[in-house]
Amino acid sequence: MACSLLPLYDALSSTLEKWPSAMNDTELKQRLAAILAADVAGYSRLMSLDERATVAALDTARKVFRVHIESSHGRVIDMAGDSVLAVFDSATGAVSAALAVQAELGKLGADLPEASRMRFRIGVHLGDVIEKADGTVYGDGVNIAARLEGLAEPGGVSVSESIRTVVKGKVNAEFKDQGDQQVKNIADPVRAYAVKAVIDTLLATTGVDVSQPVAGFGSRPAIAVLPFANLTGDPDQEYFADGLAEDILTRLAMQRWLPVIARNSSFAYRGRTIDVKAVGRMLGARYLLEGSVRKAGNRVRVTGQLIDATTGHHVWAERYDRVLEDLFAIQDELTDGIVGALEAAAIRVEGERARRKPPSNLDAWDAGIRGWWHFKRFTREDFAAAMPLFLRSLELDATQAGPHAGIAMVRLCEAVFLWTEKPQDALAEAMTSARAALAADPLESMAYAALGFVLAVTGKHDEALAMCSKGIELNPSLAFGYHVLCFTRLCLGEPQAAIKAIETAIRISPNDVVLPVWLSLLSTGHYFARNYEKAAEVASLAVQRGPSYAIGWRCLATALGQLGRVDEAREALEQFLARMPGFTSEQAARSALPVCDEAVFQHWLEGMRKAGWKG
Description:
There is one protein chain. By secondary structure, this protein is α+β, with helices and mostly antiparallel strands. The chain has four domains: 5-206, Alpha-Beta Plaits (2-Layer Sandwich); 223-354, Rossmann fold (3-Layer(aba) Sandwich); 358-454, Tetratricopeptide repeat domain (Serine Threonine Protein Phosphatase 5, Tetratricopeptide repeat, Alpha Horseshoe); 508-615, Serine Threonine Protein Phosphatase 5, Tetratricopeptide repeat, CATH 1.25.40. The protein is 55% helix and 16% strand. It contains 25 helices and 13 strands. Strands 1, 2, 3, 4, 5, 6, 7 and 8 form an eight-stranded mixed sheet that branches.
């Protein structure tokens, strides 16, 4: 092997033995560490075949090493020549990084001829090292790791007995005994083990590559819920962490549009230091949810983070602090909040991903999720962009419920916002599409919510409530279901019930892109309850968060009109009419808010007219 690390280690060891005073003792620290040593098998041969290609491959490999070392909380010490040296505080982290590196490098070189593939040997040892103030490490631990690297097969990993003892059962790998090995300058033999990731063993023995997408998922991204870490230090609290993760997994499965990896697979990573990219590949999941639970007295803190396993980037993270009164109620509340937030975050990220694809490359999933991305912006232009995407998704896969629900919502909103010359035709199309969504998947909660919304707008409020209730029963984290429930309660003249419903939606998904819509509904609830100060306060927040959303300005105008703040009310009304120029008559107003009680409707018009509306 060219540029081998061994002569360097031998020279350093010799120097330390002969000139111990060469370094000031105050600069040295002796500690236990996991050392990873690697270099290229057959580097000189590769250089003789193609220097440029070999140098390029080496640069790529260095990047792979650095990413996995750092993501496993390690530190690169040196990358001289064709070698790599890294140090870890955790033995599990070192082995996880080694296996992840070999897995990724193996895939990168899979399309190359056998003779041209760059393969590394990796050795890992847990032992004492001497660390200088600048982070450089020396000692027997480094020396042994280098000798183990020489025992590894090209593309393989060899570890010492000390590593195997610590990590066995904590990494998804198998260990093959390589026997005792004599190491230069080390008195006792070192027991060595070849390590192979279980994913490789499965592929070799069964022909099943578990890193490939799961059959039946199509192009839809899967999510895996990893076991939540119990940071309390009390094993008796493990049940709460497990129960929360299991509830989240079950609730995610209720959403149906996002496939969820089975518990037995994802919970296999309990207590392990993981490389998110490697775990994502092994489970066939694009997203990983991990979290922790810490309890102190009667308080509990839960953290959650959603990670894109393809990039390692965080998509969402949140902390929840609660007082433990009713344990099961707290668990349900946390589950609702986490699942609702995950749905909003995943739709946002998936929508952005689909938007970056050329239109000709969109599959059914991409087109549908891109349509929802536009719909959730609630502008006339975005509705116009969403419709052909939903239609394209159905052309590619007519069995889906989601695109039908999307079409129903677009046509419904176009009718309510007067963005069509034939609102009654649009409502009829919305009803047809909502029923088609339910027929496509009778267990799709969004289909029930969509149908409920159309029924509410067309004055069938009792049927709308039944649809909302069924949708929420199927998926208690369906924030949009509470949106529709709020709207229906407003139409029935029940402001307190409406306020409760929309506050639930906001609590489930507080960072949702449709928050301005929900705040507008909340403002309307306070207005109908004749709490005009609160209505104006909430409406002001709605227009700050979504200045392009017309209804927020309408809510602000009515509340300010009732408060006698005429100039401000008139300005808000002008902003509203600029976005909804068709809102010029009482008939238009009735189509926008089809309330049952005439007194409630006239109360609403009163605020509009006090703001200066002439309709």
